[in-house]
Amino acid sequence: MFTLEQIENAHRKVKSGADFPNYIKEIKELGVKSFETWVKDSHTEYFGENSFTTTSQPQYEDLAIADDSNKEKFVQQLKSHQKGETDYMTFCKDCAETGIEKWIVDLDKFTCIYYDKAGNEILTEEIPH
User: H/E element holding 81?
Assistant: First the structure.
């Protein structure tokens, strides 16, 4: 089983979206199978073997998520983040502004799927590994 402390130690190494693939590899090695991050406050639920789960605390005050998603603008902002041009908080604000409510990362498939408030898939990305 993994702990929230182990995950947070791995996450501290992430300075921008460019560091995300290494973070994913590190937490996969800890036993994380998938996780779901909510943009409103960045609390995350982590899932492991045998129905094991642990949930992080909110990371900031609630953000208002736009009712309508703007995929084109989101993709543009995501690309900037992945190049290391924005920090995590900026990325979360960008997600809220463009109607992204949460993302789910599957560490077996190496995918990250972004969803709007209605539960629609807005974008599915493969995570480099």
Answer: helix 71-82
Distance, in Å, from the CA atom of 10 to the CA atom of 65, rounded to the nearest integer, reads: 27
Q: Give the pLDDT of residue 15.
A: 76
Residue 69 CB-half CA count within 13 A: 18
- CB distance 85 to 23 below 8 Å: no
> Locate tokens 């129905």: which residue?
51
Structure confidence at residue 58 (pLDDT):
96
Instruction: For the full predicted model, state whether its pTM sits above 0.85.
Output: yes
In the chain, the domains with their CATH numbers are: 4-126 (3.30.1810.10)
Cα–Cα distance, 61 to 107 (Å, whole number): 28
d(CA 7, CA 37): 13
54-105 per-position pLDDT tens digit: 999 999 999 999 999 999 999 999 999 888 898 889 999 999 999 999 999 9
